[in-house]
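ARCHIVE CARD
CATEGORY: sequence design from structure
SOURCE FIELD: tokenized fold
FIELD CONTENT:
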């Protein structure tokens, strides 16, 4: 393997090398708060990307003594095959030492193993503790193979992603499936080890793959809210498509009450207000706005 150097790298370098080499080809806004590279002969051959939690308040699940920002997530890791498999544990272990030396305020590192690739063998080798798995909902675009987590499909605070993915869904372009998501954690602050609220479990047996969903139905509340978003945009085509979907799969639900409820949602009110202020009934070419996906 030769002599390796592990050190912090800047955000843009970490983002570029991750998008280029990581299997997901994705970089989210929560990523890249702390980034570390592994070098051989001045060549960057790997990266470990740590960022904020996808659910910012979930740090409370770990320990009552924690404050926001003291739990990080290992969001992405990529190692060039030239370095071999042991380089992953070397990189992770070195970053933990650097956190303790440079950023002692960081108390816990959590990460999740994608069941499409396995159950997190590398985290077991790096002495993470295992805290069970959940089934996460994903959607695959049948045209280009791009996979989306359910979060942007449902996130009303990010309307571009919400409407883009629900358009694909209404056009029957998305194939839903479940993936087991395995949760791991490494306690950097030894004083917290006996205070962790999550229940540690035995390491899982090796498992890999997805679970296809034959009869998936979009949640009623989400359907109504998306329909209202399309109404705000005067997008009659997709508003009607969602209305038809609701009629087919939620015909016994109380539509009027749900519409009233969704119109009081803060994200919907913000979206409607921004559109009302924009005077963008027609989106101009080459103009990037909140509504440029129309």
């Amino acid at each position: 393997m030769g002599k390796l150097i592990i050190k912090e790298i800047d955000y843009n370098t970490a983002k570029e090398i991750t998008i280029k080499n990581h299997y997901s080809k994705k970089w989210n806004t929560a990523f890249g708060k702390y980034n570390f590279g592994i070098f051989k002969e001045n060549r960057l051959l790997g990266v470990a990307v740590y960022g904020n939690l996808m659910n910012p308040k979930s740090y409370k699940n770990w320990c009552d003594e924690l404050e926001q920002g003291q739990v990080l997530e290992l969001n992405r890791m990529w190692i060039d095959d030239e370095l071999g498999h042991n380089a992953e544990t070397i990189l992770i272990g070195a970053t933990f030492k650097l956190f303790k030396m440079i950023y002692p305020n960081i108390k816990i590192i959590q990460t999740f193993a994608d069941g499409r690739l396995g159950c997190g063998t590398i985290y077991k080798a790096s002495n993470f503790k295992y805290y069970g798995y959940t089934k996460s909902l994903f959607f695959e675009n049948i045209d280009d193979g791009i996979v989306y987590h359910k979060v942007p499909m449902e996130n009303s605070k990010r309307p571009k992603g919400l409407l883009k993915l629900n358009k694909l869904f209404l056009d029957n372009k998305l194939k839903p499936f479940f993936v087991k998501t395995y949760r791991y954690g490494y306690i950097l602050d030894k004083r917290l080890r006996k205070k962790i609220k999550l229940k540690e479990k035995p390491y899982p047996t090796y498992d890999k793959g997805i679970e296809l969903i034959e009869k998936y139905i979009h949640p009623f509340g989400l359907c109504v809210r998306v329909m209202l978003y399309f109404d705000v945009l005067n997008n009659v085509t997709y508003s009607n498509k969602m209305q038809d979907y609701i009629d087919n799969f939620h015909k016994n639900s109380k539509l009027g009450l749900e519409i009233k409820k969704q119109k009081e949602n803060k994200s919907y009110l913000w979206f409607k207000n921004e559109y009302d202020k924009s005077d963008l009934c027609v989106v101009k070419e080459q103009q990037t706005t909140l509504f440029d996906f129309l």
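CARD ANNOTATION: Residues 280-288 have pLDDT under 50 and may be disordered. The chain has two domains: 5-132+182-204, 220-278.
SHELF: design records, drawer C
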